[in-house]
């Protein structure tokens, strides 16, 4: 049985971030010890938030309740606490729900602790902003008879929701940079833009809850706001199910290719991973990263249309057999052209064997005519082919594969994509988990590149030299590796 992971199993920077956030959350909540806290309201709101998070953890309800447990699904409850309570009390509301929330990946306890700490800090900052701008007075103060002062109540509420969003965005980027070791220049990219609109909606829902809470109908009336919130959660659940169906479709196609072509077992997944690494290093938007990964995973799906005897042939291919294999990009494009969610991945599947100098196939496109996603996948495909063991040759070291890619940059490969892969490898290394000659359950040792020596004229692309192609089939093959 695998042991659950803990704080010691995450990078040192992430440990420091988690411990610091926990200490900060404790400092935010500490003033409650002075008294004057409306404990009844704190308990009701904290219990309501915990109740919203609990179904996914409940063994009976987890598979039957159609409510996704997604970050931010129940933020209106927390923002209502921000508008209704003093800052230290608002910081406490998120803690019980965050500590019992559903977490998919290990280390679960650390992730829950981090989530509780960042929500507590964000709630404290939002409540402090709301109080500083006179938000409680605009909502009617402590009297249920006083009517909210609209539209002036919207200003402190909007500012509080914005501060809540900014704090969460800052902390989310921090944990991405430390735990997942994202580049600092990209860790926060796009987080605020993706979060701002949802937090504005959550802020309005939270303000509605706060207004109803202070009305003469009391806290039960605030529960009516949960109905549209749960409807929105249901809609999001449908999106999650559709996404899961997409993943299942891709897995089925990849498994079919791996079964048919035993020489490339695991190759598709690794090309998908390398493609995503390159795209992330180039600063592509988060939404494109998944599409680029799909393109890498499915780049060889057209091999399903190639006769098995040709794919598994041990000897050299005849010109006729090579011509048949060179049809696999077109076969693949035909197979996936009706799958709408793949987007630009369809073009990458069709054109990933095009070359920058126009000598590739199937259409002989050159330079900027080749789609950007196809240029990414071409580099990832060549790199994994060179660094994977095949029955007819051993894997090359990562450093040798990088040198070959750099040699062919400008003729066969886009230099930007090659440089992006080099930067990603220097940051993360490369770990080959499955090779064609190993059982699928066997994990190969990490293949991490040593420090790259300075490039010399001899290491650059030589005019007239052959294109890189380490593969047995018409994948990128270096001219000096023929018959290797």
UniProtKB/TrEMBL annotation:
The keyword Transmembrane applies. CDD domains: HDc. Residues 438-484 are annotated as: Disordered. Keywords: Membrane, Transmembrane, Transmembrane helix. The chain crosses the membrane at residues 12-33, 89-104, 116-133, 153-179, 191-213, 219-237. InterPro entries: Cyclic_di-GMP/3'3'-cGAMP_PDE (IPR052020), HD/PDEase_dom (IPR003607), HD_domain (IPR006674), HD_GYP_dom (IPR037522), HDIG_dom (IPR006675). Residues 264-386 form the HD domain. Pfam families: HD_5. Residues 242-437 form the HD-GYP domain. PANTHER family: CYCLIC DI-GMP PHOSPHODIESTERASE TM_0186-RELATED (PTHR45228), LIPOPROTEIN (PTHR45228:SF4). This is Metal-dependent phosphohydrolase. It comes from Streptomyces xanthochromogenes. The lineage of its organism: Bacteria, Bacillati, Actinomycetota, Actinomycetes, Kitasatosporales.
């Amino acid at each position: 049985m695998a042991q659950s992971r803990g704080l010691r199993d995450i990078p040192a920077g992430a440990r420091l971030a988690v411990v610091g956030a926990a200490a900060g959350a404790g400092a935010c909540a500490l003033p409650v010890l002075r008294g004057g806290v409306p404990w009844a309201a704190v308990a009701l709101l904290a219990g309501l938030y915990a109740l919203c998070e609990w179904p996914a953890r409940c063994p009976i309800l987890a598979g039957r309740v159609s409510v996704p447990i997604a970050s931010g699904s129940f933020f209106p409850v927390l923002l209502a606490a921000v508008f209704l309570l003093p800052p230290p009390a608002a910081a406490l509301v998120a803690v019980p729900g965050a500590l019992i929330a559903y977490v998919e990946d290990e280390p679960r306890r650390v992730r829950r602790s981090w989530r509780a700490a960042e929500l507590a800090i964000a709630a404290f900052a939002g409540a402090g902003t709301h109080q500083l701008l006179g938000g409680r007075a605009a909502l009617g103060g402590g009297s249920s008879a006083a009517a909210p002062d609209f539209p002036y109540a919207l200003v402190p509420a909007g500012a509080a929701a914005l501060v809540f969003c900014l704090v969460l965005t800052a902390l989310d980027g921090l944990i991405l940079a430390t735990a997942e070791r994202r580049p600092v220049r990209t860790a926060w990219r796009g987080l605020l833009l993706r979060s701002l609109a949802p937090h504005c909606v959550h802020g309005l829902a939270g303000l509605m809850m706060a207004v109803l809470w202070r009305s003469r109908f009391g806290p039960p009336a605030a529960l009516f706001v949960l109905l549209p919130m749960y409807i929105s959660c249901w809609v999001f659940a449908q999106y999650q199910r559709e996404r899961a169906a997409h993943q299942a479709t891709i897995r089925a196609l990849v498994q079919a290719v791996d079964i048919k072509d035993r020489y490339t077992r695991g190759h598709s997944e690794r090309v998908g991973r390398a493609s995503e690494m390159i795209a992330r290093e180039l600063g592509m938007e988060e939404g494109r990263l998944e599409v680029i990964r799909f393109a890498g995973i499915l780049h060889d799906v057209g091999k399903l249309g190639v006769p098995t005897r040709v794919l598994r042939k041990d000897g050299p291919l005849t010109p006729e057999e090579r011509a048949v294999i060179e049809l696999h990009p077109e076969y693949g494009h035909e197979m996936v052209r009706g799958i709408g969610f793949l987007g630009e991945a369809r073009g990458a599947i069709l054109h990933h064997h095009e070359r920058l100098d126009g000598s590739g196939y199937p259409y002989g496109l050159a330079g900027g005519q080749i789609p950007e996603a196809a240029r990414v996948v071409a580099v990832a495909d060549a790199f994994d082919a060179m660094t994977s063991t095949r029955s007819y040759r051993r894997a090359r070291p990562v450093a040798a594969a990088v040198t070959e890619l750099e040699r062919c940059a400008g003729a066969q490969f886009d230099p930007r994509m090659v440089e992006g892969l080099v930067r990603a490898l220097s940051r993360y290394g490369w770990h080959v988990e499955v090779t064609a000659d190993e059982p699928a359950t066997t994990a190969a040792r990490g293949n991490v590149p040593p420090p790259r020596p300075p490039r010399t004229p001899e290491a650059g692309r030589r005019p007239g030299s052959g294109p890189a192609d380490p593969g047995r089939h018409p994948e990128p093959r270096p001219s000096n590796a023929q018959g290797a």
